[in-house]
Design goal:
It is a single chain. This protein is mainly alpha-helical and 684 residues long. The chain folds into four domains: 180 residues, no CATH class; 104 residues, no CATH class; 229 residues, no CATH class; 133 residues, 3-Layer(aba) Sandwich (Collagenase (Catalytic Domain)). It is built from 34 helices and seven strands. α2 packs parallel to α4, α12 packs antiparallel against α16 and α19 packs across α27. 44% of the residues are buried.
Length: 684
């Protein structure tokens, strides 16, 4: 990679991003050290040396040594000839793979009692499960200066550089660019603890944010929810809105819940109604009275109309400030927005935004909105973003499918024994299927199914499966097939990639997408192909509607974080005002034309905005990847071979990965085309 022009661009990048200043002595010694390396290894190594010295200096701290120590280290550890550089590259990728792999093994072993079905769980088992063997590895690499060896010799490339220069790179170049991914930051333990504490506090706040729906009073004075109905915000209220579409008299209850959600976003919700059964609340009038039953009244605080004091937004501010404290310690990713998009998703925020907007601005979304309104027999309301009752969807869990699944999989052993047939039916050739199954361990899960991907070639991927006493029903089989798809994809990504340092996938969204395309063949694997065919249109319509919904929420989340970085000293009340404006602006631009409703703040009600960081885009990007991968597999006509080829592309950025996998960069085209076909079929 010595020919690649990364040196100057990286230096400009570090300066432009406002990373902590280089050591004061660096500008004095850098020309001398650079020239010494050029004299030893030749002029062709100048750019590489300059880049490496600056990268090393960007993370050098006083405890690492003075200028003389830095100079001596650089002169001793620069791999300036082909043999030493090849050896260094081999050492790093092999040893990092070894560390990653064994840390996964240790972690899985320490969690065994909690994760696997069987045996008593003691209090100390939780402590074993919480142990993180990799927690201090990065610190150790800096302490013994191996991290500086990597920074001196390999590029610390940004996503922008990778996308601009990547088309001219070899696979070895990509592998070299991945080595320093784990060495781009040195965040002090105190700052990390601050982030963890902010996350835990926000999560605890959300966990306790419950609405006793049986205390809600509609404008007519009715209480439409059964006694004991307690809903966690926002998920529980949203799911209850969805459930009421099947109730002919459910519209008033939906409106009541939607108004409650609006009050939460606005923070006009009375503080006393949160997780309190002792009062009755009218969300429309926003008034509170005591519950009529004396015993119930004594179970919580009495009536008060005082609103929640912007607590929701105070937690958001705390989380932002905790992450902002870490910004200065990241050499190439100086904001959380960059870290979440460029580093974690390998898809920059502007590109992600354009993808989400391509869904929301599509004629298919507007057309589907008209279809939903027609199906409901009324004009759309803002809460109809959560509509899910598309024709044909009900065929995905019929008695026939349940019976077929339970008959075939009465036990975990039956599922394990059927894996060769499943892979053969999916189109995997015998040799790779046998090899992959040899790298897969199927274990009984204590809770929901899960996948523990191997961290190095030759290690086993763990597929944890839960089978009910009466066998797997169709929903359980579908979920297990999703996990199997992810397990296979990650096994291939670790074992079949050409360079160990490139093992993996672009992000969790792509592993989920590969799992989903396997899951969508569940009915076919049970021999009930008609149901699978009937549900394809429903999947397309459901995925487009849900992707549009979460795209709106993700845009609100992204714009909120942009606002926070532009207003780092804002108060909670300022943030509330900003979020309400952002959510209404996003709604009015992308949803109001299709819904005929303006100024809804519902896109800001997602609890993820409070206790996670820039998470929602994954929910929108995933379905786009699913339909694009599915489209490629349909065009080629060989699921197994294409699944293997795609999974072995390596942990490239999202767009180059998808171009290798499906012939073009990540796009909404396949999802939109499928939804268009589904709407055409409904019009016939």
């Amino acid at each position: 990679m010595s020919k690649l022009p990364l040196a100057l661009t990286l230096g400009l990048c570090l300066a432009a991003h406002g990373v902590s200043a280089l050591p004061g002595w660096f500008s004095t010694i850098e020309p001398r050290v650079e020239q010494a390396l050029v004299q030893k290894y030749g002029e062709e190594e100048r750019a590489r040396a300059a880049r490496g010295l600056r990268q090393m200096a960007s993370l050098w701290q006083p405890d690492d040594g003075d200028a003389a120590t830095f100079e001596e280290f650089a002169l001793e550890n620069f791999a300036g000839d082909k043999d030493s550089r090849d050896a260094l590259f081999t050492r790093f990728q092999e040893h990092l793979s070894t560390i990653d792999g064994h840390c996964v093994e240790i972690g899985a072993d320490f969690r065994r009692q909690l994760d696997l079905d069987g045996g008593t769980i003691y209090p100390f088992d939780g402590r074993f499960a919480a142990f993180n063997p990799s927690a201090h590895i990065a610190d150790d690499f800096f302490a013994n200066k191996l991290a500086f060896v990597a920074l001196l010799n390999f590029p610390l490339a940004t996503l922008k550089e990778e996308l601009e220069q990547g088309p001219g790179w070899t696979r070895r170049d990509w592998a070299e660019a991945r080595i320093n991914r784990r060495f781009e930051s040195r965040v002090p333990a105190k700052v990390v603890r601050g982030i963890v504490e902010a996350e835990r506090s926000a999560e605890s706040y959300i966990d306790g944010y419950k609405i006793h729906a049986d205390t809600l009073v509609d404008p007519a004075g009715r209480r439409p929810f059964a006694p004991g109905t307690i809903l966690v915000a926002h998920w529980g209220l949203r799911d209850e809105i969805r459930a009421r579409y099947s109730d002919p008299a459910g519209l008033d209850a939906q409106r009541l819940l939607a108004k409650a959600l609006e009050r939460i976003v606005e923070q006009s919700i009375p503080q006393v109604v949160i997780n309190n059964p002792a009062v009755l609340w009218s969300p429309s009038a926003n008034t509170v009275v005591a519950a009529p039953d004396a015993a119930v009244r004594s179970s919580g605080p009495g009536p008060s109309n005082s609103p929640e004091p912007d607590t929701r937004y105070a937690f958001m501010l705390d989380l932002f400030r905790a992450h902002r404290a870490a910004d200065a310690y990241h050499a190439a990713a100086p904001t959380l927005i960059v870290r979440k998009f460029d580093v974690d998703r390998q898809l920059d925020s502007g590109r992600a935004q354009a993808l989400l907007e391509s869904v929301l601005g599509s004629p298919q979304f507007a057309r589907e909105a008209r279809f939903v309104a027609k199906r409901l027999g009324r004009p759309l309301e803002a809460f109809d973003i959560w509509y899910a009752d598309f024709p044909g969807r009900e065929t995905a869990a019929t008695e026939e499918l349940d019976a077929a699944a339970k008959k075939r999989y009465p036990t975990l052993a039956a599922f394990r024994d059927d894996l060769p047939r499943i892979l053969a039916t999916l189109g995997f050739a015998q040799e790779p299927a046998t090899r992959l199954l040899g790298l897969l361990v199927v274990e009984p899960s204590r809770g929901p199914g899960q996948v523990v991907a191997a961290g190095m070639a030759g290690a086993k991927t763990r597929l944890r499966v839960r089978v009910a006493a009466d066998g797997m029903d169709f929903a359980a089989f579908s979920d297990t097939l999703n996990d199997l798809g992810r397990a296979l994809a990650q096994t291939i990504a670790v074992n079949d990639v050409d360079y160990p340092i490139l093992h993996g996938l672009p992000s969790a969204s792509f592993a989920t997408a590969l799992g989903t395309v396997a899951r969508d063949r569940a009915a076919e694997l049970l021999g009930v192909t008609e149901a699978n065919t009937r549900s394809t249109d429903a999947r397309a319509l459901g995925d487009l509607w849900q992707t549009a919904e979460v795209s709106g929420a993700a845009l609100v989340e992204l714009e909120t974080w942009r606002w926070l970085y532009a207003h780092p000293y804002a108060r909670a009340a300022d943030l509330r005002t900003a979020v309400l404006k952002i959510s209404r602006d996003v709604w009015n631009r992308w949803f109001a034309p299709a819904f005929g409703v303006r100024d809804s703040p519902l896109l800001a009600v997602y609890s993820h905005l409070v206790f996670t960081e820039l998470f929602l885009a994954d929910y929108a990007i995933g379905p786009l990847a699913v339909w694009q991968i599915e489209g490629q597999m349909t065009r080629v006509g060989n699921f197994g071979a294409e699944f293997q080829r795609m999974s072995a592309c390596g942990a490239l950025p999202a767009d180059p990965w998808m171009k290798n996998a499906a012939g073009k960069v990540l796009s909404a085209d396949d999802l939109l085309a499928a939804a268009g076909r589904a709407l055409d079929n409904l019009d016939r």
